[in-house]
């Protein structure tokens, strides 16, 4: 736990217990210390140092330019402001292109203060998930829309609408759990697919644009604050500043709405 607070540390076992109790958990991106302390004050369970920093901090039009050095820098800033939240760090584009690179770069993130690492991919990352889990590094597998593959996918489209693709995603999610993935993050998938995956897996599942049935929800902090650089925010985004008088109030509302099952609502869900 950070030396900044006596707040109880959120661990993987905390998240598993919350899942067992049917209690929703919250996750938010952060890239710096002060905002992290506000996020922790609101009671956010997981802080994600996401490679979305390439877009919302650096102003790029994708996450691809983010380097390991940059991710580690922002992770260190977040660690300094943390008060007991679980810190998940993204593995940047190509930082896990080979098993050896994945091993070395995940180690760097853990040594900089991460509690888990997030890797985009399906079946092909199973071996790495297993290798890292065996060595004490919990991984969250990021499936559905995987922004690092934007050039292959061709755009920010909802994934898994086609029944064959749905089956493939479910199979891959199951094999990742079997390989040792500690968590799964689903991005931009139809609600029906999320529900099928929730039925098959027992690890905690976090969603963004994946409907309301996941164990946890994640948002990019800039979207929550209504300062996204996108002309038209995606359907799943809710601007929590609209009904709040301060950033802290908006963060508190996000936490209470996720916990109460108010956010995401139908209007934020793909069917
Ligand atoms: O990098 C990020 O912020 C993410 C979220 C969109 C889940 O991966």
Short description:
The protein is an alpha/beta fold and 271 residues long.
Structure in words:
With 271 residues, the chain is α/β, with parallel strands linked by helices. Helix content is 39%, strand content 14%. The chain contains 11 helices and 8 strands. Helix 2 (33-41) links the parallel strand 1 (25-29) and strand 2.
Strand and helix map with partners:
Blueprint: H1 12-21, E1 25-29, H2 33-41, E2 46-49, H3 53-56, H4 68-81, E3 86-90, H5 99-111, E4 116-120, H6 126-134, E5 139-144, H7 150-153, H8 163-179, E6 183-187, H9 191-200, E7 205-208, E8 216-219, H10 221-224, H11 247-259
Parallel strand pairs: 1-2, 1-8, 2-3, 3-4, 4-5, 5-6, 6-7, 7-8
This protein binds 3-methyl-2-oxobutanoic acid.
Quickly list its features:
single chain; 271 residues; alpha/beta; eight-stranded parallel beta barrel; 11 helices; 8 strands; 39% helix; 14% strand; globular; binds 3-methyl-2-oxobutanoic acid
